[in-house]
């Protein structure tokens, strides 16, 4: 895409404006670092445009505190107070989905993941948000906790102009086929290769 211009223009009858405003389904997958980081970077851009942001973190421990969560919660408060950017919701499976107020259960991760997806599907049907981050959502799909075909169909039929970004390793092929944007993070080098553990400001 030289200078941001498509190499070809599809004969779909749509105007350039209509294509530019089409809802995007993005998948960040692969073994390398940076999948979630890239998704939250996109969400930051969306927030700056005034989009309504919703983050759903799957298979996350309640004890795991990520820097992006603190930053986006503060951005949500900034919007509420000063009208800057857009509203923000942040939901994490490991601490119990916030809409249900149920604490997380170590014995029932599959049910919790299915509950999270059911809520996301409801919100998509209602056009509740403009930009969704489904962080580490590929794992419930890979492990069979959530049906891949149902997810692909729901995302494909979502109304309006709702953007969705999904992160995690081993994204199923059906999801990759349905996506508009697929990025595979490939590890070349990593500090853990030489015994270095995660660092504050880098991993969290």
UniProtKB/TrEMBL annotation:
Keywords: Transferase. GO terms for molecular function: ATP binding; corrinoid adenosyltransferase activity. The keyword Transferase applies. GO terms for biological process: cobalamin biosynthetic process. It holds the Pfam family CobA_CobO_BtuR. Gene3D superfamilies: P-loop containing nucleotide triphosphate hydrolases. Its EC number is 2.5.1.17. InterPro entries: CblAdoTrfase_CobA (IPR003724), P-loop_NTPase (IPR027417). This is Cob(I)yrinic acid a,c-diamide adenosyltransferase.
């Amino acid at each position: 895409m030289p200078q941001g211009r498509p190499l070809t223009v599809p004969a779909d009858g749509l105007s350039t404006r209509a294509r530019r405003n089409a809802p995007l389904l993005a998948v960040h997958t692969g073994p390398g670092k940076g999948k979630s980081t890239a998704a939250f970077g996109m969400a930051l851009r969306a927030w700056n445009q005034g989009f309504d942001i919703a983050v759903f973190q799957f298979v996350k421990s309640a004890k795991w505190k990520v820097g992006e969560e603190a930053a986006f919660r503060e951005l949500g408060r900034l919007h509420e107070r000063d009208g800057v950017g857009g509203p923000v919701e942040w939901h994490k499976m490991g601490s119990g989905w916030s809409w249900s107020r149920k604490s997380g259960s170590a014995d029932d991760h599959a049910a919790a993941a299915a509950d999270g997806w059911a809520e996301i599907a409801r919100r998509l049907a209602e056009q509740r948000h403009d930009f969704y981050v489904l962080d580490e959502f590929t794992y419930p799909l890979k492990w069979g906790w959530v049906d891949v075909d149902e997810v692909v169909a729901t995302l494909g039929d979502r109304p309006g102009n709702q953007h969705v970004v999904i992160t995690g390793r081993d994204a199923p092929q059906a999801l990759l086929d349905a996506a508009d944007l697929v990025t595979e993070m490939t590890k070349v080098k990593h500090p853990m290769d030489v015994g270095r553990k995660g660092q504050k400001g880098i991993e969290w």
